[in-house]
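Summary for the funding panel

The consortium committed to producing paired sequence-structure records for every protein in the target list. Below we show the first two records in order, beginning with the earlier of the two.
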Amino acid sequence: MGVIHGKINFENIESPYELFKSYCKKYNVVINQDDKEFKFIDTQVIPELKVYLENGIELNGWGGAITGMEKDDFEIQFGGITSELMQTEFKHHYDEYYGTE
């Protein structure tokens, strides 16, 4: 099982910080760090978080953790990815870790 990470692209979301903070509070997700002044948040794994590939297929795994600051970017780290999916959809991550075949 592997882990992938990347920048989150938002559409029609005014405040990603508020979105993640309210979601975590509503569903009792642990927030490791929360800085209201800088609108920074770092969460533990959110098992119910749904992530979709560009082709619309839902990504399956353990879940994703979110880290980021509103004036910069937010990143997701998503764990529990099968090696087959890593090789096909995330080849750059796979090659970086295992080397090219």
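The next record, for a separate protein in the list, is shown here:
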Amino acid sequence: MDFLDILPKDYSNMNYDNIRHIRMDKEPLPHWEEINGILSTMDGEILRFLIHSKIPIENLIRFELAGRGFDKNHRWIGFSKSFEIWLKNN
């Protein structure tokens, strides 16, 4: 995943104008295209549930990544070690 090397470290200050520009990009970066595709095809009731219930999306993602057995550099390390890395408190 070469594109991971060029990504900014923090998108926490992303605003709706930033999102609008990403969505309007004629040649979006592959990761933005995937993320937008996932969200735009997801049932609206599920999206509303995630917001209304304050589901910790980061925790869901970390748990999924832990179950794949790779570290943060996408190197195979096995499931036990992967759970240690991904599920520790940040």
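Regarding this second record: The two ends are 23 Å apart (CA to CA). Helices lie at 16-24, 30-41, 44-52, 57-66, 79-87.
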